[in-house]
Specification:
The complex is a heterotetramer of chains A (221), B (416), C (245) and D (278). Chain B is α/β, with parallel strands linked by helices and 416 residues long. Chain B has 13 helices and 14 strands. In chain C, helix 2 packs across helix 3 and helix 4 crosses helix 5. The radius of gyration of chain C is 29 Å and the shape is extended. The chains are: A mainly alpha (221), B alpha/beta (416), C mainly alpha (245), D alpha/beta (278).
């Protein structure tokens, strides 16, 4: 049983990892095809996992509705919206002329209406709330408390001045200073981070492939 | 008027002299044939193409054309396979195939495509070659009305088993792999490797303790990438360590998930931590739950939960996009202690400014080693440090050499 | 008491929203005539949801909660449709079960199909461990792909492009400053060295580079975020209320 | 009295800042200020490249964004399309994001009309294809295999796509993207791998992330955020018709408000710190 529960997953991870690693260096057509094949496989597995997610979500909301727990009405909204959207989409998708045509279920007219008039305003608005949050975060964070904080503050101020269309800022070369900040110190910092991250990723990946890192498999035997 | 008439012949003469009329071109010496013609299998590819190279005619202009002709037999019918206009397609454009030699600027190349399979119904007048067969090439130089053909060369295309253009990548992988593995083995024998202080991780205990004192929940977000991505794996590893401390403190831990697979793994990991802490009874599966796989509905839901349940502590570890600030600022508004960490360059500024502690880039990956002090992980970390020292040396030497006009290391590191 | 006053406020706000829309419809500002109904109706719904989301800025309230829960439901529903028709049908079911008259079924797809089905083992406590096989494939695959690609993008590209061939003194200075930045930031990430003494001082320079980078990126983002807000306000003022054009 | 004002300022209710931001956006939208923007070389490089290509060159536009990033990226798409159609280039549009399809169709219709460019003769939209990196890789190998049909018509029957068998046949590409998959995929798995020149357009938040690409010449130019879009609008002379330049006015005002708040916050911090010390 340990073989099935522990060893086989580690062997699968090892094979999948090594194959993808070696594939990168082999220019054969078969090797290129393998990359796209495995990518598709990962997508397919992910698609099945949605059932697990769905069960978790419905379990929570339907549980609330059954118990008439506080806020069960909101759970009802979620469930009804989910069933309606999925139902309309699935039915619309089934009506397409032939299974290979480019008109996907998600591009049916009804689903597009929902996307444009419900998803878009909701998502766009949530995204735009960042405008308010970034202002309040800037107000709290940009204080000259320490030397480091002052550097952060000054860099931020210079960059923000570029957007202010007052001639004096252009005259003293704010856009040029910005270019320099972004192409020199900013890039240096980002490169430093990227190099370090790359080594971490290589090390972590190797530990996974060789079965040293196995937290992701969970516990038990 | 008379003056104009006198000038007219002069102007005419000048006009003839300036515009290169075809009549004049005919008086030119005949065009030379192209020299140093070579044909070779395209290296580092999946077959199906042959590279033809030749020395550029020194007098070429944009009017000049090189026509690459191909045939299956020495004396067979030749087809047009490629046309290279003057001034384009130099060997120096393709260091992947020809390297960085200075003289590559004086040579043209053309790539002739072949097909994998035998062509069943060849279209008339068009060349359709097949992999693995010998083909003969010549280059016709054409300029104005004139043209001249070169001699013949031949080549066979084949598949390559190793991409030499990726040799630098391969060697680096082997070096880093070896160093990391060696230090992991080393650490098994010498388990007490030193690791510097990471203040964000020292605060984990305190942050969890605070939630316990206040009797409020802890939120843990693993980021928005799927399970196959490394930042998510790093985050799940930290979740395992944090959950153990949480279980010991008997505090409520909530993990709202963006991806069903990540949720499944997180459930297993948290359950395992509770078991290890001796509190398997305290684990509730519904506290590690799926929300949605859409960025902004996810963030709306998590922000809403934060406002209602007012967690004392937020962990935001993994890879984030724009939602980083939406989560962190909502957390700041309710006064939660926030420990964030990501290798998403674009989101680091927001975590650094709004969270109490931020794990920057590599620190996210170092966290599980730091929290667990497992020799294997510490050894791996030591290997990464050696890798960094190596990269620092390469960068310093490479930059110095390149600035001095010797781009040797730069070329060596160029990826293809 | 507070609950009561919230209800009143919500009631008033909703009432105002309804009245505004009635006026818009009555004056013909929003066209819901035959053929345009879904467009006009869509604008009203969009405006309502936009305002509901913004109400979160004041505080958590029933209107926001309604929008939030609706949003989750729709997004998951949409995701289900996408998964079925954009992932499963073209990549699994069609090539495996319905490949077309002259094509053979792609039998190799049985492997991911099986690994997908194994995910369901999580519903049975006894066989829940089977899902590890699928996870192992996904994680192993990700790890294998990551190594060479990150070596290329994060190490080779970055290293070779920091080695710049320049001759003028300004670019040379920049290249050297950038090099100092990269080296000091890398030193900051050293885990086997205590940040004290010379190492501490040098890594502090690295921290300054990080701070400049963070400050600059933060400030640069302000613009992007305000753009988004402008977009939404534009929708409210133009498409819904028609007060600007 | 004053001391308590600064103390209050220190812990100001976030909602007051929110209110000021809202006013800073709404007022300039209602009252036009016409403040304009300055053009940077980053954006000019893309413009110059499209300008310098001979007529009828193939230009690929990868529009990888969805409605949530449209305020920034849609004007870029509009201006670049407008520029291409004006120069009579052949335009091919692709997207890796399902949410972008409607927007792309809309802008293609609008911009092509202005210069009487014809669908399939002068431009083609390849449609959405799921898979991110895999799609780019496959396009690099064989585009008619990736997109056997475009708008229910075989790839090979569409005139504007003649001569474009794979990504390397493109004269220039512009990747306008709001995240992943996006510029990274087109650069690393597209232009780097198959060899063609590419410029980028991205949301403001991502722009700094791509400066290393700029310096490494992996991107020849970059439009960052609304300002980048506004700059391109200025370059192609669409200040009046486009939306980006106009939207820069509220930008300027809001930035001034935020800068003012930061200054006030620092004054408050220092004045309260002094009193605390004494």
């Amino acid at each position: 049983m340990v073989l099935l529960k522990r060893q086989i997953p580690l062997i699968i991870a090892f094979i999948a990892g090594i194959v993808m690693l070696v594939q990168y260096y082999i220019p054969l057509q078969e090797s290129q095809d393998l990359l796209s094949e495995f990518t598709t496989w990962a997508m397919i597995i992910g698609a099945f996992a949605l059932v697990i997610g769905l069960s978790s979500l419905l379990h929570m909301h339907i549980g609330k509705i059954r118990r008439l727990a506080p806020g069960w009405g909101y759970s009802l909204i979620t469930v009804v919206a989910l069933v309606t959207t999925a139902g309309v989409g699935i039915i619309a998708g089934m009506q397409r002329p032939d299974p290979d045509s480019a008109i996907y279920g998600s591009q049916a007219a009804q689903i597009q209406w929902m996307y444009i008039n419900l998803m878009w305003p909701l998502g766009g608005t949530m995204f735009s709330i960042l405008a308010f949050f970034i202002a309040s975060a800037a107000y709290r964070a940009f204080r000259a408390r320490t030397f480091e904080a002052t550097v952060l503050l000054i860099a931020a101020m210079i960059v923000m001045l570029e957007v202010v269309p007052i001639k004096i800022f252009a005259a003293i070369g704010i856009p040029e200073i910005n270019n320099w900040i972004f192409t020199c110190p900013n890039m240096a910092a980002q490169r430093g981070i990227m190099l370090g991250v790359a080594l971490s990723v290589v090390a972590t990946s190797l530990r996974i492939i060789f079965g040293i890192e196995r937290t992701y498999l969970g516990g038990g035997d | 008027m008379r003056r104009l008439l006198i000038f007219l012949p002069v102007l005419l003469a000048a006009a003839i002299f300036i515009t290169p009329l075809p009549a004049q071109a005919q008086n030119n010496p005949p065009l030379p044939a192209v020299t140093e013609l070579e044909a070779q299998d395209t290296p580092n590819d999946s077959g199906s193409s042959i590279l033809v190279t030749w020395k550029a005619w020194p007098n070429e202009t944009s009017e000049t054309e090189y026509i690459v002709l191909v045939s299956g037999a020495k004396d067979g019918q030749f087809f047009e396979a490629a046309v290279v206009p003057g001034g384009l397609s130099f060997k120096s454009d393709q260091p992947r195939y020809f390297g960085f030699a200075e003289k590559n600027k004086d040579y043209h190349y053309a790539s002739v495509k072949l097909s994998k399979e035998e062509v069943k119904e060849p279209r008339k007048g068009i060349f359709q070659g097949k992999d693995g067969t010998e083909y003969f090439f010549k280059v016709r130089l054409r300029h104005g009305e004139q043209s001249s053909d070169s001699g013949l060369v031949s080549a066979i295309s084949s598949e390559n088993w190793f991409d030499k253009g990726k040799l630098n990548n391969f060697i680096l992988m082997i070096i880093f792999g070896f160093v990391v593995m060696w230090f992991i083995q080393h650490a098994k024998k010498n388990p007490n490797l030193f690791i510097r202080k990471i203040s964000g991780l020292d605060a984990v205990d305190e942050a969890i303790g605070r939630a316990t004192e206040m009797g409020k929940p802890i939120f843990y977000v693993t980021g928005l990438l799927p399970m196959s991505e490394l930042p998510t794996i790093a985050s799940v590893n930290i979740l395992g360590r944090a959950a153990k401390i949480v279980a010991e403190h008997d505090t409520l831990l909530k993990v709202p998930c963006y991806d069903p697979i990540v949720m499944s793994v997180a459930q297993e990991v948290v359950k395992d931590s509770y078991t290890k802490a001796g509190r398997p009874d305290a684990y509730r599966e519904e506290n590690v739950f799926y929300v949605t796989s859409d960025q902004f509905s996810y963030v709306a839901a998590v922000d809403g939960m934060m406002m209602r349940e007012k967690p004392a502590t937020n962990f935001l570890l993994g890879y984030f996009y724009a939602e980083s600030l939406l989560l962190a600022e909502a957390g700041a508004a309710i006064g939660a202690i926030q420990i964030a960490g990501t290798d998403a360059l674009a989101q680091l500024p927001f975590f650094v400014t709004t969270c109490d502690y931020t794990l920057i880039g590599e620190e996210l990956y170092a966290a599980s080693a730091y929290l667990s002090r497992e020799p294997v992980l510490l050894g791996s970390l030591r290997g990464q440090d050696i890798g960094k020292a190596f990269l620092m040396a390469v960068l310093v030497i490479g930059t110095a050499l390149t600035l001095a006009g010797i781009p040797f290391l730069k070329h060596l590191l160029t990826p293809f | 008491m507070e609950k009561y006053s919230t209800a009143i406020v919500v009631g008033i706000v909703v009432a105002v929203f309804i009245i505004v829309n009635v006026i818009l419809l009555a004056t013909g500002t929003i066209d819901v005539s035959e053929g345009n109904f879904w467009t006009g109706f869509g604008i009203i719904v969009g405006a309502g949801l936009t305002l509901a989301m913004y109400s979160f800025l004041y505080k958590d309230n029933p209107v926001f909660k309604f929008a939030e829960h609706l949003y989750i439901g729709i997004s998951v529903g949409y995701f289900i449709v996408m998964t079925i028709y954009d992932t499963l049908m073209p990549n699994l079911f069609t090539p495996l079960f319905n490949p077309g008259p002259d094509k053979a079924p792609k039998l190799i797809l049985i492997i991911p199909f099986a690994l997908g089905i194994l995910m369901f083992s999580r519903f049975t406590p006894k066989y829940a461990w089977l899902f590890r096989w699928s996870i192992a494939f996904i994680v192993g695959f990700g790890a294998g792909v990551a190594i060479p690609n990150i070596i290329k993008a994060n190490i080779l590209v970055q290293a070779q492009s920091s080695m710049v061939m320049v001759t003028d003194w300004w670019s040379t200075t920049c290249a050297i400053i950038a090099l100092i930045g990269v080296i000091t930031v890398l030193l900051y990430f050293f885990f086997s060295l205590e940040h004290s003494g010379a190492v501490g001082k040098i890594s502090r320079v690295g921290v300054l580079f990080l701070m400049i980078s963070f400050g600059a990126s933060f400030a640069y983002t302000v613009m992007a975020r305000i753009s988004l807000l402008i977009g939404r306000i534009n929708f409210l003022l133009k498409d819904w209320l028609h007060v600007i054009d | 009295m004053e001391k308590s004002f600064w103390e209050k300022m220190q812990a100001i209710d976030r909602r007051i800042i929110f209110l000021f931001v809202a006013i800073g956006v709404i007022v300039p939208l209602v009252v036009e200020l016409k403040l304009g923007v300055s053009v940077t070389n980053r954006v000019k490089n893309i413009y110059n490249k499209i300008e310098s290509l001979p007529e009828r060159s193939h230009i690929l536009i990868a529009a990888d964004f969805d409605p949530s990033a449209a305020p920034e990226l849609y004007p870029m798409l509009e201006s670049v399309l407008n520029h291409c159609f004006r120069k009579n280039h052949k335009v091919i549009v692709a997207t890796l994001w399902p949410g972008g399809v409607g927007l792309i169709k809309k802008s293609l219709d609008e911009q092509s009309k202005e210069y009487d460019r014809v669908k399939e003769e002068d431009y083609a939209f390849l449609g959405f294809k799921t898979g991110g990196t895999a799609v780019v890789l496959s396009m690099g190998q064989d585009m008619k295999k990736t997109f056997p049909e475009v708008d229910n018509k075989p790839y090979i029957d569409i005139p504007v796509l003649k001569g474009v068998d794979k990504l390397a046949d493109i004269s220039y590409a512009v990747a306008i993207s709001a995240g992943s998959p996006g510029i990274d995929n087109w650069v690393i798995y597209g232009s780097e791998k198959y060899g063609f020149e590419i410029g980028g357009g991205c949301t403001g938040v991502m722009a700094t992330q791509y400066f290393p690409y700029l310096q490494a010449k992996q991107l020849n130019g970059l439009m960052g955020g609304l300002k980048g879009a506004a700059e391109y609008e200025m370059l192609v002379g669409r200040q009046e018709t486009g939306s980006a330049v106009k939207r820069m006015d509220p930008q300027a005002v809001t930035h001034i408000i935020i800068i003012a708040f930061i200054i006030l916050g620092n004054i408050a911090y220092f004045s309260t710190r002094k009193t605390n010390k004494s």
